[in-house]
Write a structure and sequence with these properties.
Layout (H helix, E strand, L loop, with lengths): L32 E6 L2 E6 L3 H4 L5 E5 L1 E3 L3 E5 L5 E11 L3 H6 L3 E9 L9 E7 L2 E13 L2 E7 L7 H8 L16 H4 L7 E4 L11 H9 L4 E7 L21 E6 H9 L4 E4 L1 H19 L9 E2 L13 H14 L4 E6 L14 E5 L6 H10 L2 H11 L10 E5 L1
Parallel strand pairs: 1-18, 3-12, 3-14, 4-11, 14-17, 15-16
Antiparallel strand pairs: 1-2, 5-6, 6-7, 7-10, 8-9, 9-10, 12-13, 13-16, 17-18
Helix pairs in contact: 6-8, 7-8
Length: 405
């Protein structure tokens, strides 16, 4: 692995003009540009032609997380507006249970205008299924950069998931420098999203249309799904001059036992749709290595903390790792595996799971850009310069790239 001193933040900066940031998506998802990088050569096409550029016998892994309407606007009796940005559930801690919660729920949140919230409850008046509902929020305590917020409401027939879906707004990225609009509810969401939990979209998948998915199914292109709930930490800039000192955010990965069984049967030719899918797959590899080294027990923490992978054995094959994951599932009769990951992928990292990466163009100096640099080496700058010179649109609503070293 690279020495700490070699991961210098300044090496991952580039000039991104404001005009090249896509503030809105294209009318047709699949009309976006597709940069093709293969073996050092670069060309371009339209995203709708992606299947023509997939290597023979390749298969795709999508992140099926769904973006929640995480921003809730409350008002104090004085009229002051307080925005609560729901990040992750605390009680119930399980995402599915948290969205099904009735009458009360507790979340880790960011709070806008928190200085105006001196204490006591604040309220949001809304309508759910034609009925009036008053949502009460109480600030319990600070937790790192966020706050623990407890919510209460009287209507026992209404879930917390219904409340935020109807009353919240889409958490579009701050660099778009605009308020969320009604259209963002649909467009800042992949067409295959299923599992509620993200506060940021897995943007590599925003270009797919139902027609494209159907065509690939008819062409027998194999497609699988896993879930990583993207947290607000994905927008946290790296401020440390030595990027290894950056604290990576923790995110939840959920994978089915069925996926693991299919992955074991055939692991080569995998194209990850997005950096989130990549981090999920690589984190699963390291969890399998960890489980292989330790006797399985249900109390074992299923997590990969930052830089832990560097301390684990480096010579375990992918198939051995997947077998360890499956053995753990069978031991404890699990149909789904839940993993917390802080894996940070930087240049010098050796990928174990993917053959290609489909991704958008990322913010200068971000952990996402460092992952790209880890995947294709110093050619990342050649790719980004090409994209800038050719008028590609950048960031979440921007264009796409297929990267195959």
């Amino acid at each position: 692995m690279a020495e700490p001193s070699s991961i210098r933040l300044e090496n991952f900066r580039y000039n991104l003009p404001e005009k090249d940031i896509a503030k809105y998506p294209l009318a047709d998802r699949s009309a976006s540009k597709l940069l093709l990088y293969r073996g050092g050569s670069i060309s371009q096409d339209r995203f709708r032609h992606l299947p023509d550029h997939l290597p023979a016998d390749s298969w795709l892994v999508f992140n099926s997380t769904r973006v929640i309407q995480a921003r809730l606007n409350f008002r104090k009796e004085t009229g002051a507006r307080i925005e609560i940005f729901c990040l992750e559930p605390i009680d119930p801690a399980d995402y599915e249970q948290a969205f099904q919660a009735r009458n009360s729920a507790t979340w880790l949140c960011l709070v806008g205008n928190v200085k105006k919230w001196k204490g006591g409850p604040i309220f949001l008046n809304t309508r759910i299924n034609g009925e009036e509902l008053k949502l009460e929020a109480q600030l319990e305590e600070r937790s790192g950069e966020g706050f623990i917020i407890s919510f209460q409401w009287k209507q026992s027939g209404v879930s917390f998931g219904e409340i935020i879906e109807e009353s919240g707004s889409t958490p579009i990225p701050p660099y778009l420098k605009r308020k969320a609009e009604d259209s963002d509810r649909e467009r800042y969401q992949t067409i295959y999203s299923m599992n509620n939990g993200s506060v940021a979209a897995p943007t590599a998948g925003l270009h797919f249309t139902g027609e494209m998915i159907q065509q690939m199914e008819q062409s027998k292109v194999r497609m699988e799904h896993i879930t990583l709930h993207v947290g607000a930490g994905t927008f946290v800039p790296v401020k440390e001059k030595n990027a290894r000192k950056h604290l990576m955010h923790s995110e939840l990965v959920v994978v089915s036992r069925t996926f693991l069984e299919q992955w074991l049967k055939r692991s080569d030719g995998l194209i990850a749709v997005g950096t989130t899918s990549t981090r999920s797959l690589e984190s699963l590899y390291w969890l399998g290595v960890k489980l292989k080294e330790q006797a399985p027990r249900k109390s074992l923490s299923l997590s990969i903390v930052q830089w832990e992978n560097e301390k684990l054995p480096q010579d375990i094959s992918l198939s051995e790792s997947i077998e360890s994951l499956l053995y753990y599932c069978k031991q404890f009769k699990l149909e789904h595996l839940h993993l917390s990951t802080q894996l940070m992928i930087v240049p010098g990292y050796r990928f174990r799971t993917i053959s290609g990466l489909l991704t958008n163009f990322h913010m200068p100096g971000s952990t996402l850009l460092m992952l790209i640099a880890a995947w294709i080496g110093e050619d990342w700058l050649k790719v980004y310069n090409y994209a800038l010179n050719e008028g590609f649109r950048f960031l979440s609503y921007g264009d796409s790239s297929l990267l195959i070293p």
